[in-house]
Structures are given as C-alpha cells and as structure tokens.
Design goal:
Elements lengths: L3 E5 L4 H12 L3 E8 L14 H15 L2 E6 L1 H17 L6 H20 L4 E3 L4 E8 L2 E8 L16 H5 L1 E2 L7 H11 L20 H5 L8 E5 L20 H8 L10 E6 L22 E7 L4 E6 L7 E8 L3 E3 L11 E7 L7 E7 L3 E11 L6 E6 L2 E7 L3
Parallel strand pairs: 1-2, 1-4, 2-3, 4-7, 8-11
Antiparallel strand pairs: 5-6, 6-18, 8-9, 10-11, 12-16, 13-18, 14-15, 14-17, 15-16, 17-18
Helix pairs in contact: 1-2, 1-6, 3-4
C-alpha cells in the first residue's frame, strides 16, 4: 500500500516541483493549500495576495494529477506568529516570523490537518535535507543544509523538533533552484517562472511600521547620533580562552548601553519599537556623507541611536547570549551540559555565511563568542549552530 504524503502547495514553484517529485517516487500525494492571512493592512499592493496563490496551487494540482484541498489556519497563525511578532516588537526586539511559522504552523497546525487527510508524511518545498541515524536502538533525525548553497533554508527550520522531523519530507533538498525551475518548465507548470514570495511568511511584503500600528501606537521620539569612538570597547579578534568566567562572558556579550547625553539629537521618529539593529531606512535624516544605521533602540525612553557608515563600531559585537529556556536542540541526543564548551559554526540570519564560534554552556544559558566581530546582532532573532552541514540546535538571541 502506498504511503500518503500531504504536500503544502503554496502556489510557488518549489512546492509545485516537490509535489511532482513525490508522485514520481511512488507516494500517494495530496496537495493542501494554507490560507493564513486575510488582512491587507500595510501590504504593498503590487504583491500578489492569497487568492492568486490559491489559483496557482489548484492549477498545479490539476496538472500533476493529485487531490487538492485547502484549509484556513488564520486563527492559529495570528495567535502563534503575528501576536508574538507584535509582543516582541513592543519590547524592542526583532522576531523572525519565518522560523516561527515553520515551528508553529507548517509542522504543527498544518501537520495536524495533514493527518486528518490520512497523511503519513508532511512535505514542503524547503531547500534542506533530512536523514537519520540509529543510536542505542533509537532513531535520531538530522536536519541538513540544502544542496543549493544560494537557497539553503535550513536556518528557517532551526526550531523544529525530532517529532516534527520524523514525518517531514523535503523532496527538493538535493536540487538547485535553476534545476527546480527547469523541471517546472519541462512539465509545463503554471508556476515555472513565478517570482518567489517575499516579506513576512504568508502575509507578504509589508510596510512594517504601518503593519505594526495595528497594535503598536506611534509616538514621537528622538534620533540621537553617536560619534565618539571612545565610547566603544576594543574587542579583540579571535576566539577567547576556554577558561572564562560567566562574568567575563557576560561582559563580552553585553551590548553597549547608550545615554541620551552620549550623542546629539539629529531628528525624530514615530516609535523606537518600529526600528531594528542595523536598519538604514526610514529615518529621513539628511546632511551625512554616508548612510545612517540604527545601532541601538531604547523603547522605555523611546530613543533610536544611530551611527554614520557601515564601519561604525556600534554595529559590531563580539558575542551574544541565549537564555536557558530559549535553547532548542534538534539533536536531543547531544545537548550541552552546564560547564561544557564546544566549537560550532553559527549563523544569526538567513543567508549569512557560517561563522566560527565557541559556545559556553552555563546554568543561565549559552554564551556564543565569535572568532570575528559580528555586525547587527539583534535580540529576538535566532542563532543556529551547525556541525558541518547539520543544524544541531538554535535559540532566541536575548542580548
């Protein structure tokens, strides 16, 4: 009897080819379209809405010859992704909705719907791979980077669990994007040349301040430019010694705390919670040779601190900290224990090249200290650590 796979048909080329690959592999394939967002507040109108995605998904299912269903998951999506986003921005942190969407929706709520349709597996068009190994008569599932270095999406799945991986399939993980488009062209799929979606997962490309003002109030505050280089500590390059105390680790990972008196007011903004570390747009301040970048936000006093130029020292940090309760191990068989130190490759954003780092596990959490200074470490984002091409674990950046 054929195993049944429910594939998340999004109306894009990746999930379209994923469905075809599964059918070719001999699975009984069903396409399921998720409708997760209805509101158009802040949406950039040139972007396609969910109605277009649904139409393309139906066309692909018909062309491939598979069953097709749709489900409305906008309730859980709002509660578990969008409301979390609002809460994080209100605290002055920058969440990653794509990582949350995979953990909370695609491999949770959507997987529940797939099981209702009799699905043994859930498949997506992610550019990543999965394999398994046996240890002590137990199966451990491994999440691996996709074969296409330019499209590898393993970072976006850095919060999935062993239970979620057990029934997950990634049919195009061994293909490159050009190969996927070639297959779609050869099959005559309507999605073959359709542009990749951008912006917030299932919402689209939005004007973020307008989108966030659904819940977060706009309020005038000062933009303060920091110029004095003496304010910044001299952070040496290279990995630190392994015998560091937690106090020293904390000092290495503490972001600099600015005061209004450290700089001068050069403009105003409509709310510090609408800005994120490293941002260069939306300040509307002229008179500088180089672009201004956000180097810190203070949501309590409603201040945005900025520095001029990409080389401003306020953009760089030596390390970061993840609280104990925010640490997630995909490889649950090899978690770090208190006092343990390991070297891994780490990334703090999608498509960032992997960075050499040393992880220090303490009773309070994990300190990650990098070999080289890192630009734009942002609280609320996820840090993911790799061994080779395998994602071992991840966590929400606390500071």
């Amino acid at each position: 009897m054929k195993k049944k796979v429910v594939v998340g048909l999004s109306g894009g080329v990746d999930s379209s080819v994923a469905a075809w690959v599964l059918k070719e592999q001999g699975f009984e394939v069903t396409g399921l379209f998720m409708k997760n967002w209805h509101d158009t507040t802040g949406l950039i109108q040139s972007e396609c809405h969910w109605e277009d995605d649904l139409m393309f998904a139906e066309m692909v299912a018909k062309k491939i010859g598979i069953a097709f269903h749709q489900v409305d998951l906008s309730g859980p999506y709002r509660e578990r992704v969008v409301d979390y986003m609002f809460a994080e921005y209100e605290k002055g942190r920058t969440p990653n909705p794509d990582v949350l969407c995979n953990r909370e929706i695609k491999f949770d709520s959507f997987a529940d719907e797939a099981r209702k349709l009799g699905g043994d597996f859930v498949a997506t068009g992610h550019y990543c791979r999965k394999d398994e190994l046996k240890t002590n008569d137990k199966t451990i599932y491994r999440l691996l980077a996709g074969a296409d270095n330019n499209k590898d999406q393993s970072y976006f799945l850095c919060q999935v669990s062993q239970k979620q991986l057990a029934t997950a399939l990634f049919p195009i993980g061994n293909l490159t994007k050009p190969e996927v488009r070639q297959i779609a062209e050869k099959l005559g799929l309507a999605t073959a040349q359709r542009k990749d979606s951008q912006g917030i997962c299932f919402v689209g490309k939005v004007h973020l301040p307008t989108f966030l003002q659904q819940k977060l109030q706009a309020k005038k505050g000062n933009i303060i430019e920091i110029k004095d280089p003496k304010l910044f500590p001299d952070l040496s390059e290279g990995l630190p010694e392994k015998g560091l105390t937690e106090k020293l680790l904390s000092e290495l990972t503490d972001p600099f705390q600015y005061k209004a008196s450290d700089g001068e007011v050069i403009g105003t903004h409509n709310g510090a919670h609408f800005f994120t570390i490293g941002q260069r747009k939306g300040m509307n301040v002229g008179g500088h040779k180089e672009a201004l970048f956000v180097i810190a936000t203070d949501v309590v006093n409603n201040i945005v601190y900025v520095g001029e130029g990409q080389e401003h020292p306020g953009l760089n940090r030596k390390g970061l900290f993840i609280r104990k309760e925010e640490i997630h191990w995909i490889r649950t068989d090899i978690p770090m224990v208190n006092g343990e130190i390991r070297d891994y490759m780490v990334r703090i954003r999608y498509r960032q090249p992997l960075q050499i780092a040393r992880l220090f596990c303490t009773d309070n959490g994990i300190y990650i200290i990098f070999d080289k200074l890192q630009r734009g470490i942002t609280p609320g984002q996820f840090a993911a650590w790799y061994y080779g091409d395998e994602v071992i674990g991840s966590g929400v950046i606390d500071k």
